[in-house]
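hi! just following up on the protien thing from before. the input was this:
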Amino acid sequence: MIDATQQAGQATQAAQKIALVTGAGSGIGRACARKLLANGYAVVLVGRRAEPLEALAAEAHAAGQTALAAPCDVTDVAAVEALFEAVHARFGRLDLLFNNAGRNAKAVDIDELSVEDWRAVVDTNLTGVFLCTRAAFALMKRQSPRGGRIINNGSISAHAPRPFSIAYTATKHAITGLTKSVSLDGRRYDIACGQIDIGNAATEMAGRMAHGVPQANGEIAVEPLMDVELVADAVLHMAQLPLAANVQFMTIMATKMPFVGRG
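and the predicted 3d structure came back as:
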């Protein structure tokens, strides 16, 4: 039997698709959430800090858009399970998960990186993605109509490391393996999974690029940045494809950043 909550969710689905964006309170996540909202998606805004999520939700509501601020630590198993249960109760389904939440560690030699800092990066960048993907996969394979799309935020570092970034680089290489496995295992359930690898989008996290960062040859060099809106446009393109098509991997980067030939 379908209860009133499920009926409400199905009615919402008839009008718009449902997306969930992690790390939505700032940077790439915020830009992509805004882009999805502007293009008719209802968006669940996920992050650790409630204030920026609530501000973005209020901005969306003022524009007549559907947004739900959902503070959640993606490394917390119980919190992630509760999050996706709430999404199902509110909307009845999930069409898109953008795994965007991530963090870095101190730029130091491996022997100076604490185990605690290593685990913090792995917990967020890899285990958090696993937990959210696991919950989304379970929902997408059982909902009607079946299926959905999962987009993982990889990084240029999924291909080539920056100096002093062993934890971040290791997790982003691992995300590529996770993306391929979910893409394969999701076929039978009409779940598409792809990855976007981003280089030097102009966000708070990448602001240091404009002041100079270490290069593979030991120099400190300023690197060019690109408008984060271009990343949002790329994610929207991936999101809007029919499930019969998939962007398996996309690289979008500032044209003149030192990536090709790096290392």
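The longest helix spans residues 115-142.
Residues 1-13 have pLDDT under 50 and may be disordered.
cheers
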